[in-house]
Amino acid sequence: MSDSEALYNVRERTGNPEHVSVDDVVELILERAQHPRTEHQDGHLDDHMATVVDRYGTNPVRTVIHRVLVDGAPFRTVPTTSRYATSTAFVSERPLVSSSTS
């Protein structure tokens, strides 16, 4: 499956009650942003989401996650194209991941 064809099995998109709901996904992400996993291989993503939540708040985060998981919008363009966005730009001025090599 290519990046442009990514679809997620969430209840709101599939109608299947056995699939996870978007609200559950959002709550997990917000919980991990509040309490990042320090000893987990993906803990850096929790730190990045904490930065995003601090900067933009929870409503734009919920909107972007919903647009990606339910509407199938590409995650790279949702922030700038979302008519639902509550902030003027959900885009970081600096990269969240350092590109320097040590």
Describe this structure in words.
Helices cover 46% and strands 0% of the residues. It is mainly alpha-helical and 102 residues long. Helix 2 (22-34) packs across helix 4 (58-69).
Q: Keywords, please?
A:
102 residues; mainly alpha; 5 helices; 46% helix; disordered C terminus
Q: Quick recap of the structure?
A:
By secondary structure, this protein is an all-alpha fold.
**Helix-strand string:** HHHHH
As for the number of domains, it is 1
Average pLDDT rating: 76
| Percent helix | 40-55%
What structural category characterises the helix and strand content? mainly alpha
Secondary structure tally, helices: 5
**Strand residue percentage:** under 5%
